[in-house]
# Entry
Amino acid sequence: MEKDTTDLNHNLLRGKVAQAFEKKYLKEIEGKKRKELIQYKRTRHRHVNFMAKFRAKENEEETRRHKSMLPNIAEKIQQAPEVLAKTIQQKLKYIRKLTV
# Structure
Protein backbone atom coordinates (compact mmCIF):
# COMPACT_ATOMS: atom_id res chain seq x y z
CA MET A 1 0.00 0.00 0.00
CA GLU A 2 2.76 2.39 0.94
CA LYS A 3 4.64 1.51 -2.27
CA ASP A 4 1.54 2.23 -4.33
CA THR A 5 1.20 5.64 -2.69
CA THR A 6 4.89 6.37 -3.34
CA ASP A 7 4.54 5.34 -6.99
CA LEU A 8 1.46 7.48 -7.32
CA ASN A 9 3.27 10.47 -5.80
CA HIS A 10 6.23 9.91 -8.14
CA ASN A 11 3.91 9.75 -11.14
CA LEU A 12 2.15 12.93 -10.04
CA LEU A 13 5.49 14.64 -9.52
CA ARG A 14 6.72 13.52 -12.96
CA GLY A 15 3.52 14.86 -14.50
CA LYS A 16 3.89 18.21 -12.76
CA VAL A 17 7.57 18.46 -13.80
CA ALA A 18 6.62 17.61 -17.38
CA GLN A 19 3.90 20.28 -17.31
CA ALA A 20 6.35 22.80 -15.87
CA PHE A 21 8.90 22.06 -18.61
CA GLU A 22 6.19 22.28 -21.27
CA LYS A 23 4.96 25.61 -19.87
CA LYS A 24 8.52 26.96 -19.77
CA TYR A 25 9.14 25.78 -23.34
CA LEU A 26 5.94 27.42 -24.58
CA LYS A 27 6.91 30.69 -22.90
CA GLU A 28 10.32 30.56 -24.58
CA ILE A 29 8.70 29.95 -27.96
CA GLU A 30 6.24 32.80 -27.41
CA GLY A 31 9.11 35.08 -26.42
CA LYS A 32 11.05 34.17 -29.55
CA LYS A 33 7.99 34.69 -31.72
CA ARG A 34 7.33 38.03 -30.07
CA LYS A 35 10.95 39.10 -30.66
CA GLU A 36 10.75 37.95 -34.29
CA LEU A 37 7.51 39.87 -34.77
CA ILE A 38 9.01 43.02 -33.27
CA GLN A 39 12.10 42.62 -35.47
CA TYR A 40 9.88 42.09 -38.53
CA LYS A 41 7.90 45.24 -37.73
CA ARG A 42 11.11 47.25 -37.33
CA THR A 43 12.51 45.93 -40.59
CA ARG A 44 9.21 46.56 -42.36
CA HIS A 45 9.09 50.10 -40.97
CA ARG A 46 12.63 50.78 -42.21
CA HIS A 47 11.75 49.37 -45.61
CA VAL A 48 8.62 51.52 -45.88
CA ASN A 49 10.60 54.63 -44.88
CA PHE A 50 13.30 53.78 -47.42
CA MET A 51 10.75 53.31 -50.19
CA ALA A 52 9.04 56.59 -49.31
CA LYS A 53 12.35 58.46 -49.48
CA PHE A 54 13.25 56.70 -52.73
CA ARG A 55 9.92 57.66 -54.34
CA ALA A 56 10.27 61.24 -53.13
CA LYS A 57 13.72 61.44 -54.70
CA GLU A 58 12.40 59.93 -57.93
CA ASN A 59 9.60 62.51 -58.00
CA GLU A 60 12.08 65.33 -57.48
CA GLU A 61 14.24 64.07 -60.35
CA GLU A 62 11.22 63.73 -62.61
CA THR A 63 10.12 67.27 -61.73
CA ARG A 64 13.62 68.57 -62.57
CA ARG A 65 13.57 66.73 -65.91
CA HIS A 66 10.18 68.19 -66.76
CA LYS A 67 11.31 71.69 -65.84
CA SER A 68 14.41 71.31 -68.01
CA MET A 69 12.20 70.26 -70.94
CA LEU A 70 9.90 73.29 -70.66
CA PRO A 71 12.14 75.85 -72.45
CA ASN A 72 12.60 73.48 -75.39
CA ILE A 73 8.85 72.87 -75.63
CA ALA A 74 8.10 76.59 -75.38
CA GLU A 75 10.56 77.28 -78.20
CA LYS A 76 8.92 74.67 -80.42
CA ILE A 77 5.49 76.15 -79.69
CA GLN A 78 6.74 79.59 -80.70
CA GLN A 79 8.23 78.21 -83.90
CA ALA A 80 5.10 76.25 -84.80
CA PRO A 81 3.35 79.05 -86.76
CA GLU A 82 6.49 79.65 -88.85
CA VAL A 83 6.94 75.93 -89.51
CA LEU A 84 3.27 75.59 -90.42
CA ALA A 85 3.41 78.55 -92.79
CA LYS A 86 6.55 77.17 -94.44
CA THR A 87 4.93 73.75 -94.87
CA ILE A 88 1.82 75.31 -96.41
CA GLN A 89 3.96 77.37 -98.83
CA GLN A 90 5.92 74.26 -99.86
CA LYS A 91 2.70 72.32 -100.51
CA LEU A 92 1.23 75.21 -102.51
CA LYS A 93 4.40 75.42 -104.57
CA TYR A 94 4.25 71.66 -105.19
CA ILE A 95 0.55 71.85 -106.21
CA ARG A 96 1.27 74.78 -108.57
CA LYS A 97 4.01 72.75 -110.23
CA LEU A 98 1.62 69.88 -110.75
CA THR A 99 -1.09 72.11 -112.25
CA VAL A 100 1.19 73.97 -114.65
